[in-house]
Amino acid sequence: MSRVLSARALAARALAAVLERDVTLEAALEQALREAPATLHANVRSLGYGAVRGYFRHEALLKRLLAQPLASSARLARALLSVALFELEDARTPQYAVVDAAVEAARDLHLHKLTGLINALLRRYLREREPLDADLARNPAVRHAFPEWLAQQIRADWPVRWTQILAASDRQAPLWLRINARRAADQAYLEELRKQGMPAHLQPQVPHALVLEKACEVGELPGFGDGRCSVQDLGAQCVAFPLALAPGQRVLDACAAPGGKTALIAERQPRLAALWAVDVDAQRVPLIEAGLARLGCEARVCCADAARPDTWWDGQGFDRILLDAPCSALGVIRRHSDIRLRRRPGDIDKFASRQQGLLRALFDLLLPGGRLVYATCTVTRRENRDTIAAFLAATPTAAMVPPVQWEGWPDLGETDECGVQILPGEAGADGFYYAALTKQ
């Protein structure tokens, strides 16, 4: 009978998969947890997320401790060291136990030749921890565990607020909910949470938005299964303001998966003439359908490339189009820490090119006087302001709908020449960008 791997060993395997195969941490953890009893799942997840969140801080630390870098083939050992360093940072487990457990995990992972190195590195760190940590903390990129190139990209775009963005991205995100007004009243649902020992409060400027004081598993939320609430960040819920939904409209949600914004549209305006949800990812399209079914909402869901309307469009124009564009996702790093490991310097230009193609294709489907809302969950000027400015310059029939005309927009974000940027952590929200265009 094979030995069950420890939570530390499984978390290290998951991190190594992210580093080696460019998979998401969630996918890597799902694979790792297949080998673990249910009693280990929570611990594996905690260690995996913590190790990924601190990876680049740990990388800088190991450069100080190692005479020469670990070989590229030693990714698993490198991942295990991040798991152990996170545990030492977390300080919930006695230091000696962390070191001993890391050495034992190395044996579990057949890293027998590296057990001595792992033991020596961790013990040296504990001896020299205070001056090492203080020295590394002087660099904001290291302090907040960002790759240097990405920290400098954010600094170039946000020279005054870049360290604020890094710090916010290094914190755990709160759990925001969207109450389904078709099935629950805001105040009644808030009271139900409180009665079940889940204190929360409403965000008064964003209808039906509620944040829990302490996060929990989705399955523990009262009414989640019967569609009374959904998990959705505050920044994402702000999409309703620039859309300005009204009865009788034909609405398209492009790049819709996993369907949170499609569902919000359906909840906010049940008397639409039509609601379409299009996404190219065949594995994620069923999530749109499942979410709508849970909430008691309907939409026409298509698995197709939004940039190629000839393959799915019925020829009738739309009054509203939401382009939730593929992007570098730097605004949601606090929820998906592996983004820092998986992004490369050339990615931002690639996303910007894709965004231009989608804008050109979808704007043709917009009726005169209609509105296209462009949204991203990133903070780069290249993908946000510059993308919209370039499209406006190249499209004579396109005009900007300035944020001052977005009825009800909350006191959130920083307005630029083309739209509004909500920065990570602002009012507890993730980082989102919105711009609205109309066809003349």
What descriptors fit this protein?
440 residues, alpha/beta, N-utilizing Substance Protein B Homolog, Chain A, Alpha-Beta Plaits, 4 domains, 9-stranded mixed sheet, 4-stranded antiparallel sheet, 18 helices, 13 strands, globular
Folded structure, characterized:
The chain is of the alpha/beta class and 440 residues long. The protein has 4 domains: 132 residues, Orthogonal Bundle (N-utilizing Substance Protein B Homolog, Chain A); 30 residues, no CATH class; 56 residues, Sun protein, domain 3 (Alpha-Beta Plaits); 205 residues, Vaccinia Virus protein VP39 (Rossmann fold). The chain is 44% helix and 14% strand. It contains 18 helices and 13 strands. The strands form 2 sheets. Strands 5, 6, 7, 8, 9, 10, 11, 12 and 13 form a 9-stranded mixed beta sheet that branches. Helix 14 links the parallel strand 5 and strand 6. The N and C termini lie far apart (71 Å). The mean pLDDT is 96.
Short synopsis of the structure:
With 440 residues, the protein is of the alpha/beta class.
> By CATH's scheme, which homologous superfamily of the largest domain applies?
Vaccinia Virus protein VP39
Output the number of helix runs: 18
Task: Tell me the count of domains.
Answer: 4
Gross morphology is globular
Percentage of residues in DSSP E strands: 5-15%
What would you say the CATH architecture of the largest domain is? 3-Layer(aba) Sandwich
Fraction of residues in H or I helices: 40-55%
Q: Tell me the distance between the termini.
A: 71 Å
**CATH hierarchy, class of the largest domain:** Alpha Beta
Structural class call reads alpha/beta
The name CATH uses for the topology of the largest domain is: Rossmann fold
Q: Which value, in Å, is the CA radius of gyration?
A: 23 Å
How many β-strand stretches? 13
**Major β-sheet annotation:** 9 strands, mixed
The averaged pLDDT comes out at 96
Oligomer: single chain
Q: Spans of 5+ residues with little confidence (pLDDT < 50)?
A: none
